[in-house]
Amino acid sequence: MKLSVLTSNCLLCGDFTQRDISLCKACEVSLPRIESACGQCGIPLEKAATANALCGQCIQTSPAVDYTISLFHYENPVSYLIGQMKFQQQLSSAAILANLLCSEILDKHSDAGMSAKPDALLPVPLHKARLAKRGFNQSLEVSREIAKAMAIPLFVNKVERVKNTDAQTHLNKQQRLKNVKGCFNVISPSLARHIVIVDDVITTGATTNELARLLKTKGVEKVGVWSIARADI
Q1: In what order do the strands lie in the sheet with 194-202?
Q2: What is the sign of the dihedral through the CA atoms of 108, 64, 154 and 192?
Q3: Cβ-based neighbours of 60, under 8 Å, separated by 6 or more
Q4: Is 37 helix (H, G, I), strand (E, B) or coil?
Q5: Exposed site from 15, 165, 167, 225, fewest CB < 10 Å?
Q6: CB burial readout 63-100, b (16+ within 10 A) else e
Q7: Which residues does 127 contact at the CB level (< 8 Å), separation at least 6?
C-alpha cells in the first residue's frame, strides 16, 4: 500500500526518511504491536495463542462481533499519533496509521484460515454535533485508504449515530454498555452479508459490539472489526 505524504521527515523522531509514509523504519519497529489477542473481541492476551483462540469472556458470552483485528496496544507513541489525527487534524498521521493497519490486514488475509474479504467497510459514524466540532471522521479517513488498497466498497451514509454519547474513557463496563445502547440507526435498506467495522481505538468494544448487534438485526450475517489500537483493560 502506497500513500502520498506531505513530508519526508519521520513524525516521531524527525529523521529524514525515503519511505512511502512519514515514519522511519526504526520508529515503526518500536511501535507497541499486539502479538497475541482474542480472535473474536481482539483483547490482548498475555500468553501466545493460536489465531482462533478466544478469551474467557468471549467463551462465556459471545459478542455480536465475529472477529477482530487490532494492530497496536493503545499506548505511546501510537496514542500520540492517534491524538494528532483526531484532535490536531494531522492527516499525515492518518496516512501512517492507515498504511500500517492495511499492511497488517493484507498479511493476515494471505494467511490460511483468515476470514474471506468483506463485502464492505463501515467506519464507525460520528454524531453530527461531534463531526461538526472535529471537522472530520478519523475512522472514515483510515477506511478510505484501506478500501482503496483492498478494492472494498465503503459504506458512508448507510448508518448514522443518533445519540451523542458521553466519552467512554472514564466509564466502567456497565456504564459503557448503557451509554452506547441505541446510539446507532440504519438508514439504508441495502447493506451486505459481510461487513467490517473500522475504528481507530477499541476500549471495551461496547461501541463496535452495539453497532454489530444492530447490523445483524438488519440481516448482516458476519461482522468483523479492524482497528488501529486496542486498549489493555
Answers
A1: 67-73, 222-230, 194-202, 120-123
A2: positive
A3: none
A4: strand
A5: 167
A6: bbbbbbbbbbbbeebbbebbebbbeeebbbbbbbbbbb
A7: 161, 162, 163, 164, 165
Task: Find where cell 475504528 sits.
Answer: 199
- Show the cell assigned to 185: 440507526
Separation between Cα atoms, residue 167 and residue 211, nearest integer Å: 17
The per-residue pLDDT for range 81-95, each reduced to its tens digit, is 999 888 887 778 888
Cell of 72: 497496536
C-alpha–C-alpha distance, residues 54 and 9, integer Å: 40
116-170 pLDDT, tens digit each: 789 999 999 999 998 888 888 989 989 998 898 889 999 998 999 998 775 655 6
| pLDDT number for residue 175 | 66
* Paired sense of beta strands 120-123 and 194-202, if any: parallel
pLDDT at residue 216, rounded to an integer:
96
Q: Which of 30-44, 46-60, 158-172 has the highest mean pLDDT?
A: 30-44
> Distance of alpha carbon 104 from its chain centroid, rounded?
12
150 is a domain residue: yes
- What is the percent of the chain with per-residue pLDDT over 70, rounded to a whole number? 86
Q: What is the CATH number of the domain that holds 190?
A: 3.40.50
Domain assignment present for residue 12? The answer is no
- Domain contains 137: yes
Residues 6+ apart with CB under 8 A from 1: 20, 98, 99, 102, 103, 106, 145, 149
Number of domains observed in the structure of the chain: 1
If you ran DSSP here, which 8-state letter would residue 218 be given?
T
